[in-house]
């Protein structure tokens, strides 16, 4: 399978927090200096950059923290199933893992709109200064409203995908997926694919390492094992899933929040995309 664009953008966002925070601080300093000098046009331009960079740094930090966070286990479920950690999460215990496409699309839309509003003065001031006073040094700052347009376009694409397909859920036929055994089930979509549609599937074992604190938090994903296959939607539009898992793989492990073992199931067909965090454990000897 080709790289998922969402993962590519997320991998870039992971590294934006610290440099954007520094850029926001520098731009705010310039804005204050220019305002004291009475150069209000430049002060407004610098303030817009500071606002955009500061908001983006906060958004990047929140995004990385959300991506790194493990779902908290249910105390009631863990007490009832002390030797079965795959039963400690409500979605895993029910045998159904759902996506969060609608929520993710709405969050990105809010961030993109806020970014565009914050950087709109740059779009008004910079071209005017370049044409009127041959001041071309501020032209690179146009990258900020351009980023807002890209984010807004991506958010609209995600919302269009949600309207077209809705949410997805992976219903497991055997709980959990087993090391040295199989992960089987079917992906059900709110608005099913046409029967006979080819779907690319990928199952990955990932070591997710979290480093840093607060604004410098970064998350590193390293693939330890990967398997891909092609499936086909059935007469009801569901997507059958059947992966054999190598016996030397590592099981799901959330015991250390700084270094987790995560299993991710991905599906791709045309404009359709879905990702699921699935339970894979070693059962028995």
Brief rundown of the structure:
This protein is α+β, with helices and mostly antiparallel strands and 285 residues long.
Task: Report what the structure shows.
- Residues 1-8 have low confidence and may be disordered.
- This protein starts with a helix and ends with a strand.
- It has helices at residues 5-13, 17-36, 40-68, 75-80, 90-93, 101-133, 143-165; strands at residues 96-98, 168-172, 177-178, 182-189, 198-211, 218-232, 239-244, 259-269, 272-278, 280-281.
- It has a four-stranded antiparallel β-sheet. The protein has a four-stranded antiparallel β-sheet with strand order 6-5-8-9. It has a two-stranded parallel sheet with strand order 3-10.
- The chain folds into two domains: 5-68 and 103-163; 79-99 and 167-281, Immunoglobulin-like.
- With 285 residues, it is of the alpha+beta class.
- It is elongated.
- A hairpin with a 2-residue loop joins strand 8 and strand 9 (272-278).
- Helix 2 (17-36) packs antiparallel against helix 3, helix 3 packs antiparallel against helix 6 and helix 6 (101-133) runs antiparallel to helix 7.
């Amino acid at each position: 399978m080709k790289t998922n664009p969402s993962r590519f953008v997320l991998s870039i966002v992971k590294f934006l927090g610290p440099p954007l925070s520094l850029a926001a601080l520098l731009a705010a300093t310039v804005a204050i200096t220019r305002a004291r000098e009475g150069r209000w046009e430049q002060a407004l331009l610098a303030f817009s950059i500071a606002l955009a960079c500061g908001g983006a740094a906060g958004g990047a930090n929140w995004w990385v923290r959300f991506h790194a966070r493990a779902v908290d286990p249910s105390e009631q479920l863990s007490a009832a199933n002390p030797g079965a950690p795959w039963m400690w999460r409500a979605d895993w215990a029910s045998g159904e893992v759902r996506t969060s496409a609608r929520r993710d699309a709405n969050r990105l839309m809010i961030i993109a709109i806020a970014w565009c509003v914050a950087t709109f003065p740059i779009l008004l001031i910079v071209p005017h200064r370049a044409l009127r006073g041959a001041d071309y040094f501020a032209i690179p700052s146009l990258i900020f409203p351009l980023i807002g347009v890209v984010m807004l376009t991506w958010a609209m694409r995600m919302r269009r995908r949600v309207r077209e397909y809705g949410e997805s859920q992976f219903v497991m036929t055997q709980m959990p997926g087993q090391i040295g055994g199989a992960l089987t089930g079917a992906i059900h979509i709110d608005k099913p694919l046409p029967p006979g549609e080819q779907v690319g599937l990928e199952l990955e074992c990932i070591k997710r390492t979290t480093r840093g604190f607060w604004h410098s938090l970064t998350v590193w994903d390293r693939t330890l094992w990967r398997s891909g296959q092609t499936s086909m939607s059935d007469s009801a539009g569901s997507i059958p899933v059947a992966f054999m898992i190598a016996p030397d793989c590592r099981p799901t492990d959330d015991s250390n929040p700084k270094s987790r073992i995560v299993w991710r199931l991905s599906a791709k067909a045309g404009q359709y995309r879905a990702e699921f965090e699935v339970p894979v454990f070693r059962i028995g000897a």
